[in-house]
Amino acid sequence: MEQCRILRFTQFFCLTVAQDHKVKGACCTKVSTANVTDPIINIRMQHKSLPCVKAVIFETAEGEFCRDPNLRWVQEKVKKFFKKTTPTPTSSISNSARVGGSTQTTVSLL
């Protein structure tokens, strides 16, 4: 009897852990806390609008994964992704002058 109980728990645990919340249909209806380890191609934010939940959607070659935007590791991964994909400006401010109550700036491109 004890062996059956352990077997059922093990099956339930394996099925629960193996289930990953991917985008199904039009939006994420659930989020997961599991880390995304595949290379990220794109990231989208989804706002709550029932049945859709607030989520960060990580797009990888394996599919799109719904994650909780409140998790620290999710926030760090989003910052790192956009920092890496945002080009650095190639301009420098060369001159600033106050004209008529506002600051006028001349920008030179390098």
From TrEMBL:
Region Disordered, residue ranges: 85-110
Gene Ontology CC: extracellular space
InterPro entries: Chemokine_IL8-like_dom, Interleukin_8-like_sf
The entry's keywords: Cytokine
Composition bias type Polar residues, residue spans: 91-110
Molecular function terms from GO: chemokine activity
A single BP term in Gene Ontology: immune response
Gene3D superfamilies: 2.40.50.40
Record domain Chemokine interleukin-8-like: where: 26-80
Name by which UniProt lists this protein: Chemokine (C-C motif) ligand 34b, duplicate 1
Natural source organism: Cyprinus carpio carpio
Lineage per the UniProt record: Eukaryota, Metazoa, Chordata, Craniata, Vertebrata
